[in-house]
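Lecture 7 notes: from sequence to structure.
We start with the chain below.
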Amino acid sequence: MTLEHATAPLDQPLTADDLGTTLVDRLLGQGENPLDDLSQALRRHRATLIDYCTLALQPQLSAPDETRLGAILDQAVDDPWLSFWLDEADGWVSEHLQLLPEEALRQQQSKLRRTLSQTWVDTFWNDLQHRTKALQTYLKRVGVYSGAIDGIMGPTTQRAVESLKTAYPDGLPLGYL
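Predicted structure tokens for the same chain:
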């Protein structure tokens, strides 16, 4: 988030109460039951979000307002929930002021979905490799694996797992864990 995209003029100024009520209702949804963490974070950051939207909707910021906006953005760096809700607030402000064309929004959402999908795959792959290395280390300790601890579930690792099952048909030697 940058300061330059956070400010814009309004035809009709909104009060902090208008902003808070409208934004919170919009984000929580009418009659929906959102995830607890999201709604708790929203309630926890309600006052900050109202401040942020109030500042974002100003045509110009005074020095104290710039300082306050900077403090909010600094706080968001260390608080992922606040960062998430500020991004949502930016979307609401943008929609309210009709700053972002619908096609640009769809493109950004598509890019975000691709990025999240790739991040999930990367995280899953790293976790799988870590678990495979732990398995290989265990198999080596019980004496059924002599390959490299490389995190790859290749034929050598698979044969070692089968050897372990054969060597210990009544249960695995958990003492080696």
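Points to note: Residues 156 and 168 are 18 Å apart (CA to CA). The longest helix spans residues 102-141.
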